[in-house]
Design a protein that fits this description.
It is built from six helices and 15 strands. The protein is an alpha/beta fold. The protein has a single domain, classed as Rossmann fold. The chain is globular, with a radius of gyration of 21 Å. 47% of the residues are buried. The structure holds zinc ion. Zinc ion binds next to loops. The site of zinc ion has 5 residues, from loops.
Length: 318
């Protein structure tokens, strides 16, 4: 009898330990950054910075899956890190990497640092990715990732709005806010995607109760960046949680968006053109909170003390 009780106590202890361990493990968000083909030449540096910033929170572990790319006429296969990797790599002759097939199922979250003119992923990889997101995986896209894959229907549903790549009214409405604060879905003919010269611009929060934006000043100044305008896409199951006023269109363009794709959550951030744009404390905070939200539906990270104000941007020193 005594032995039986001993065994029972022991089993319960083991079980309790397993439960605690499982809970602890659950809190770490397993993240995969995908990159390799981006017209923004600083993509290797930006992947590195994001990985570093995410891991510094203690909330994320970050792996990188890098598609093959051509640099200075030579082909490189997918590898990270690469010794002596330059911080900039120009996009040359992008072509589909048939071996690019990350095991998405090992992760809670994928961040895309692909860009304009990236070659399509192999079809099997596209299908695996669609399944991963539809079954509850998280996705973060920023800046030129919304230029990628204009012909991939599911991807365009995930990101809601995109630009360039011959996107027009055939791909969906141009969505923006007017001066009266009304959300407009404009189906009239027009090109999808444009931007004026780089500048500092104000981000206006449209949903102050969303976990990503809650606690941010209602208006904050972003560091110098491109401000995308006239993005077009299916814009289904999408909420614009922040906008920015663009001079070229005189409209409040979507800046931060949240979407659902099946059971998956997507965070879409139009910012992040170059290193000084990524260094913005507002950009980084949005990305870290957006990543947590996309993976879990909740945000536990606080707004940092050096967050930008309405008229003053704030940069992180790397
Ligand atoms: Zn750009």
């Amino acid at each position: 009898m005594k032995n039986k009780i001993k065994i029972l106590v022991l089993s319960l202890t083991v079980l309790a330990t397993m439960v605690v361990t499982a809970q602890e493990k659950k809190q770490i968000i397993k993240t995969l950054i995908v990159d390799g083909q981006n017209n923004h030449v600083q993509w290797p540096k930006i992947t590195h910075l994001l990985k570093e910033q995410m891991e510094a929170t203690g909330l994320f572990t970050v792996d990188v899956a890098r598609s093959a790319y051509t640099w200075q006429g030579k082909e490189f296969i997918s590898e990270y890190p690469i010794d002596g990797l330059p911080t900039t790599i120009a996009l040359e002759k992008p072509k589909t990497d048939q071996d690019f097939n990350p095991d998405f199922s090992k992760y809670d979250l994928v961040i895309s640092n692909f860009g304009w003119n990236a070659a399509p992923w192999p079809e099997a990889t596209q299908k695996n990715f669609e399944k991963f997101i539809a079954e509850g995986g998280g996705l973060v896209v920023f800046h030129a990732a919304d230029n990628s894959f204009p012909k991939w229907e599911a991807y365009n549903k995930m990101i809601g709005l995109g630009g360039w790549g011959d996107r027009t009214e055939k791909d969906g409405p141009y969505v923006y806010y007017n001066d009266a604060g009304e959300l407009i879905r404009d189906n009239s003919p027009g090109k999808g995607g444009s931007h004026g010269p780089e500048l500092e611009y104000q981000i206006k929060i449209r949903n102050t109760e969303h976990p990503i934006t809650k606690g941010m000043p209602e208006v904050w100044m972003h560091t110098k960046d491109e401000l995308y305008n006239s993005l077009r896409g299916p814009a289904e199951n999408m909420e614009i949680i922040a906008t920015a006023y663009a001079e070229p269109t005189s409209r409040h363009e979507p800046a931060l968006m949240v979407l659902n794709y099946g059971d998956g959550r997507v965070f879409h951030n139009i910012m992040g053109h170059i290193d000084y744009s990524v260094a913005c404390v507002g950009f980084l905070t949005s990305m870290l909170r957006g990543a947590e939200w996309a993976a879990t539906g909740e945000v536990t990270q606080a707004i940092p003390d050096d967050f930008p104000t309405a008229n003053k941007s704030s940069s992180k020193k790397f």
